[in-house]
Each structure stands twice: as C-alpha cells, then as structure tokens.
Amino acid sequence: MFDKLHSQISVQKFFGLLIGIGFGFCLQKGGVTLYDTIIGQLLLTDFTVVKVMVSAVIIGMIGIHLMKSMGWVQFHTFTGSIGSSLIGGLIFGLGFALLGYCPGTVAGAIGQGQVDALLGGAIGIIIGTGIFAHFYPIINSKIHSIGIFPVETIPELIHLPRFIVTGLMVIVMIGILWILEIFRL
Amino acid sequence: MIEYLMEPQWSPYVAGAGIGILLWLSFLFSNKPLGCSTAFSRISGMIEFRLLKKTVDDKEYYRIFPPETDWQVMMVMGIVIGAFLSSVLSGTFHITLIPETFSYAFGDNFLFRLIIALIGGIFMGLGARWSWGCTSGHGISGLSQLSLASLVAVLGFFIAGISTAMILYSL
Description:
The complex is a heterodimer of chains A (185) and B (171). By secondary structure, chain A is an all-alpha fold. In chain A, 74% of the residues lie in helices and 0% in strands. Chain A starts with a helix and ends with a helix. The model of chain A has no long low-confidence stretch (mean pLDDT 97). In chain B, α3 (37-52) packs across α5 and α8 runs antiparallel to α9. Chain B is globular, with a radius of gyration of 18 Å.
C-alpha cells in the first residue's frame, strides 16, 4: 500500500521529520530523555525505560502484524549472527552505560537542553559510526560471519505461526509489566 | 488537550503506546522501521567527506549507506525538535551541563563528564552499526517484527549495559 507515496523523496523527508517530532515528544514526556532515568534502568532502580519500550513493542507489534496480514506493510528483518548481533550488542551496551543515552534519546536530550548529550554523546556516536564505517570491510568478512543464525525471525526459530508467537509475546510482556507494577518498580 | 501536552511527564505506558502508534505510521506511510543509528553514520560520512575530500568510492560502507540527508536523518532532527517542544510546553526545558545522578556520584567536573560521554558515545556508535541497530531499531522496531537478530542484540545491550553501570556506580 502507498507504494507511490514511498517513492516521493521530498514528501518522505517531511514525513520523517513529522514522525521524529512525535517520537521526540513521546520520549521526552516518557522521561527517557533523562540520563537519570536511563542509568536508573541499568542500575535496576528505575524501570521507566523497560515500561516505555515494552508498551511500545506491544502496541507496535500488534498493529504492524495486523497490517502485514492485510498486505499493507512490508517487514524489514535480516539474518543476524553471534558476531554481529551479540558482539555488536555488547559493545553498544558498554557505551550505553557510559553515555547514559541511546542514539534516539541523545537527540531528545539535546532538545531538552542537555549539553553533555550534544558535545559528548552525539559527537561520540558520530565518531563511533565513522570508526565502524572505516573498519566495515574487515569486521564484515572476519567477525560478522561468526555464528550466523539459521533463521531471521523468532516464529521460524521455534516453528510456530507468526500470530501465535505475537500472542505469546503480548502475554509475556503484559506479565512483565504486571510484575513491575506488583513490586512497585 | 493542551493541558495534557503541558504536563511535565506522562505515564510510561502512554508514552510507549504513542511510540507504538508512530511505528505503525512509519511502516505504513514511509515503509521504514523506526531507527536512529544509521542517521549518525550518514552524518559522520558527510563530515568526513567534507573535511577529507573523500568520496563514496573510497569506503565500502558508504556505498551501502550513502552519506546524505535521508528520511532517518530528518527523523533524528525531528526528535530534537519534538523533545524541545515537549520540554518547553511543560516548562522543563533547561540548559544542563551534568546530569544529577552523575554529579552526585562523580562530582561536578564538566570536562570529566564530557570525556566519559564521548567515550560512551564512541562505543555506542561503533556497537550500533556493528549490530545493525540501536535501542529503537532493534529494541522497538526489530522486536515488534519478532526479529531474532534484534532479540539477541537487545539482550547484549542490557547485559553489557547493566554490568558496566553496576561496576561504574560501585567505584
């Protein structure tokens, strides 16, 4: 659906800006553009980040799966590997704890006036992605190829239909939120 | 309505649900997952090309992800604007040098905070492209699509993030 719209580059840039404005608004209102909230999550004293992420996934997942079954949207999954997903994820996590923002929330933190997010965080991320781009050929050939996953998605891995896995995920994630509320975390 | 937009903070569930709906719009109208880290690599490429007079042909990565202002770069600019509007509307906009929790634990030397943030940002940028996604790309868009790569990456983010933060704050 909307294939013609997807190819209109200037309109798309404008949509990107609008979606970003909404995204930044929600992130700021959710309190996750604050260093204190993110570091509180990593120290397991404040579960706001998990609450925002899990509720976004519940709502997002149900919607995009329904739209996919109607043939309205395409998915964008790819095959991961231990060498890319796990090793890259661990490097990211190390930076996550030192910086206390992520690439999206660092932009939000800049918007609400955090100078460390602009001069430290954003510049650091730009340098870090540049380092990756420089070493991409060797990382791609030597490390990304380690332990390539046999499948792209969780339903394919556990051999269950997509809509059943979606339902199970919703139940598990509501359970997580329920436990957080019971223990007042 | 306007009062709600002026509130300093929303329930995390409302903010999260809002992001979930934005994911629908982004898939439907733009055929794009919500993600941020590729935008930083494009900006990085634009700066590098300008400063060092290089071209796309010099680096394989930039042939795949050309350094240009695309949908996602605009989206990241939008995040800055959106958070600015939100904080101004609620009166919480404030120029801050060092986050409260950080200064409480490590003192209020801005240069020290800047160096830690810079090192953290470098690791984060490297790791985000290494795993092909960040907290939004993997954490929200990838998990919503039930991507296995995203599940593993998110576990990596939190395993390393929690361990590092625990060590850092026990020093």
